[in-house]
Amino acid sequence: MAVSILASNKEIMTRARESLRNNWKVPVIVTLVYLVIVAMSGQSEALNLAFSLILGGPIALGFAFFYLGGVREQRFDSAVFGQAFQQFLNAMLTYILVGLLVLLWSLLLIIPGVLAALSYSLTFYVMHDEPQLHTLQAIGRSKELMYGHRWQLFCLGLRFLAWSLLALLTLGIGFLWLLPYFQTAMAHFYEEVLNSHHLAQPELIAE
């Protein structure tokens, strides 16, 4: 399988900043609400587990809807979370299955677990664009799209890990801006992978 070349992580991060320029307000508010809910659910292990298993998937899909909308339409609309929750059961099952797969790979060694997480990282973006796919198909599609691109996504994550260390110095307040920045960069990364994959299709057919 041919591996397409993507824009650099620097370019992807630049595009993310451009998408957020003059559009920070709603993403920051959405992030604040999310962090408050997470903090409240973290008051007990049982509540935190229930929150993750039941709402983790729909919220992850909601973020995919929200940030892809910002990237594609230059409009961050919190109302799209309602659309994502219409796929509640499928999103919940997908989130649980992805978590189990990553956990199983991690039982072998940490590296296989990381590789699995990278391979499945685009699953909820795929569910946004191809809602007709069931759980395993969406996961498989993510794995297909990520072929040859896991290292670049890993390096992109490292860039934001460095930024997160700085955000900690602000007593966590910096995450209100860092998390939208990361999510927007992820949406741009998905767009880049998707477009390059489509461009590679004629070449694959010719072969």
Describe this entry's structure for a reader.
With 207 residues, the chain is mainly alpha-helical. The chain has one domain (9-206). The chain has helices spanning 9-20, 25-41, 45-73, 80-84, 88-108, 110-119, 123-129, 135-145, 150-168, 175-206. The longest helix has 32 residues, at 175-206. It is globular. The termini are close together. Keywords: Membrane, Transmembrane, Transmembrane helix. Pfam families: DUF975. This is DUF975 family protein. The chain crosses the membrane at residues 24-43, 49-71, 92-118, 160-179.
Mean pLDDT: 91
Strand portion: under 5%
> How would you spell out the order of helices and strands?
HHHHHHHHHH
The structure class reads mainly alpha
Computed CA radius of gyration, to the nearest angstrom? 17 Å
Secondary structure blueprint with pairings:
Elements: H1 9-20, H2 25-41, H3 45-73, H4 80-84, H5 88-108, H6 110-119, H7 123-129, H8 135-145, H9 150-168, H10 175-206
Helix pairs in contact: 1-10, 2-10, 3-5, 3-7, 3-10, 5-6, 5-8, 7-8, 9-10
Short overview:
The chain is mainly alpha-helical. The chain contains ten helices and no strands. It has one domain.
Jot down its keywords.
DUF975; 207 residues; disordered C terminus; mainly alpha; DUF975 family protein
